């Protein structure tokens, strides 16, 4: 699942190699008279007339001076370059220490476990793994640990489709009905609409039996069979409504049909092998126990963790079935930008910012970083992921976690800010934790408006033991981590929550992100 919430000093850069400039002459340092005699150069030229001999002498002095000056200036430039490199290395060490310090509260509180990688100007300036890949057997995460990356999988599915476009097997304007007949509205939907998540297809994740679908092996064909007879939600190509999981299930099926290969094998042929992404693959339910694969965990209350409910990853084919490492993900970003996989036109299509969503990326201007940003995040049972690319700063941030929490998005943005010398907000859980009696003063039922994440949702804040929870109309229950009095963060979706009270101290409003929910009933004991 993709997290659709919007989050809104520069580093030293090594320049191209520069040669010492040919500046003015400061005066002879190796020429001139020695003991009243001319230099040997003039003696060897004694047959020349005096003016020419003197010219030779001056030239010798000039060349000697120039050579010395060049050596001095070269030395200055070398020293300057070493100082710059030293400054850069020192700054990188400071940034690394700051990133590590920033992550520590997340790790200690059980809200992050995984791998973080930051690249600038083509080289890693920070990489460190945290926590356990397998808590039951004390297997730690490393840079070689492979994570399910949820909706970031869409980037790779898009790349496979664009490779087929580059090869002339299909075009972006090909009608889906010409490739996979029998789907309602398919004659109106183009391959481009699927890639841009503007198809209007009914979404498999919204089906009432989706939890059951996740518990059985699936194929792209079986996934599309679940929605093919349902009416379109809107006219294809007219708008972006929400993440279209079924669109990417369908793209996976198209890849299978055009290559004649199962999706996992097709992805290896079209994307992973050409880019030498050896740690990457598609989980088709045959690779779940592959070497160095992280287990997935989920929050258990406000402070605990437990194993996430196992699923068949084949039920997310095309939209969330890929596993990889942070290094491979960063290598994928490098390859995309370096034209190592796609033709220029396909690459430009991915990087086009005229539409915010498309090809597995969010694309647009960021006020925080004062430049265009490309990012993607995702959550799937037991895992969360985030990737950010800042083209002007040549910075890539990858955050993979085997905990089912959207903290990775906040973490990724803050780490980018740290590496660029920009402001960020540390995470500090309240200590000591509030008492149950204090938490009970926060309880009540609150009504949000039609623009809320769940439109017109009525949420309930309730206490269990010594912990506060938010109960959603969907049945989901979010643990709320206390940050301060009346200040919490939703542990599942990592959104800040503030409680506003009336003059008597009773809660009257819950502010969730920037949305306001007004009290309908409250605990008045």
Describe the protein.
The chain is an alpha+beta fold and 525 residues long. It folds into two domains: 101-419, DD-peptidase/beta-lactamase superfamily (Beta-lactamase); 436-522, Lipocalin, CATH 2.40.128. Helices cover 30% and strands 22% of the residues. The chain has 13 helices and 22 strands. The protein has helices at residues 40-44, 50-108, 153-166, 176-179, 191-195, 210-213, 220-225, 245-259, 263-272, 326-337, 344-351, 407-419, 436-440, and strands at 114-120, 123-130, 132-134, 139-140, 147-148, 281-282, 297-300, 304-307, 322-324, 357-358, 361-366, 371-380, 383-390, 395-401, 444-447, 458-464, 467-471, 477-484, 487-490, 496-501, 507-512, 515-522. The strands form five sheets. Strands 15-16-17-18-19-20-21-22 form an eight-stranded antiparallel beta barrel. The chain has a seven-stranded antiparallel beta sheet with strand order 2-1-14-13-12-11-10, with helices on both faces. Strands 5-9-6 form a three-stranded antiparallel beta sheet. Strand 3 and strand 4 (139-140) form a beta hairpin. Helix 2 (50-108) runs antiparallel to helix 12 (407-419), helix 3 crosses helix 8 and helix 3 (153-166) packs across helix 9 (263-272). The longest helix has 59 residues, at 50-108. The chain is globular.
């Amino acid at each position: 699942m993709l997290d659709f919430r919007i989050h809104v000093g520069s580093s030293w850069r090594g320049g191209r190699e520069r040669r010492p400039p040919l500046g003015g002459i400061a005066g002879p340092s190796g020429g001139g008279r020695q003991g009243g005699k001319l230099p040997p150069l003039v003696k060897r030229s004694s047959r020349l007339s005096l003016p020419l001999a003197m010219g030779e002498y001056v030239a010798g002095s000039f060349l000697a001076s120039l050579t010395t000056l060049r050596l001095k200036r070269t030395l200055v430039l070398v020293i300057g370059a070493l100082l710059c490199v030293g400054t850069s290395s020192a700054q990188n060490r400071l940034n690394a220490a700051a990133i590590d310090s920033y992550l520590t509260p997340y790790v200690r509180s059980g809200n992050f476990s995984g791998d973080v990688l930051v690249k600038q100007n083509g080289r890693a300036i920070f990489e460190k793994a945290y926590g356990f890949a397998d808590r039951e057997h004390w297997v730690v995460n490393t840079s070689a640990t492979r994570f399910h990356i949820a909706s970031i999988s869409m980037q790779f599915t898009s790349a496979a489709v664009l490779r087929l476009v580059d090869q002339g097997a299909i075009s972006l304007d090909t009608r889906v009905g010409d490739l996979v007949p029998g789907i309602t509205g398919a004659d109106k939907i183009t391959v481009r609409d699927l890639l841009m998540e503007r198809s209007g297809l009914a979404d498999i994740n919204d089906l009432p039996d989706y939890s059951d679908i996740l518990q059985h092996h699936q194929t792209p064909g079986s996934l599309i069979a679940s929605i093919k007879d349902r009416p379109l939600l809107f006219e294809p190509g007219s708008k972006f409504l929400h993440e279209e999981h079924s669109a990417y299930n369908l793209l996976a099926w198209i890849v299978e049909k055009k290559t004649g290969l199962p999706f996992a094998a097709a992805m290896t042929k079209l994307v992973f092998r050409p880019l030498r992404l050896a740690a990457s693959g598609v989980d088709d339910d045959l690779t779940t126990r592959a070497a160095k694969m992280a287990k997935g965990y989920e929050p258990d209350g406000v402070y605990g963790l437990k194993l996430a409910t196992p699923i068949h990853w084949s039920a997310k084919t095309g939209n969330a079935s890929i596993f990889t490492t942070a290094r491979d993900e960063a290598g994928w970003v490098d390859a995309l930008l370096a034209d190592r996989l796609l033709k220029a036109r396909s690459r430009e299509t991915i990087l086009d910012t005229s539409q915010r969503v498309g090809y597995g990326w969010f694309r647009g201007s960021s006020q925080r970083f004062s430049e265009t940003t490309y990012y993607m995040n995702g959550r799937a049972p037991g895992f969360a992921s985030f990737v950010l690319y800042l083209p002007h700063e040549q910075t890539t941030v990858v955050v993979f976690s085997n905990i089912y929490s959207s903290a990775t998005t906040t973490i990724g943005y803050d780490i980018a800010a740290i590496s660029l010398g920009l402001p960020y907000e540390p995470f500090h859980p309240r200590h000591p934790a509030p008492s149950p009696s204090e938490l009970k003063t926060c309880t009540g039922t609150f009504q949000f408006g039609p623009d809320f994440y769940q439109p017109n949702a009525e949420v309930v804040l309730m206490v269990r033991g010594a912990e506060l929870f938010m109960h959603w109309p969907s049945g989901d229950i979010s643990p709320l981590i206390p940050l301060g009095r009346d200040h919490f963060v939703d542990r599942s979706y990592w959104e800040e929550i503030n409680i506003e009270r009336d003059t008597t101290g009773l809660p009257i409003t819950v502010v969730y992100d920037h949305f306001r929910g007004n009290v309908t009933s409250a605990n008045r004991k």
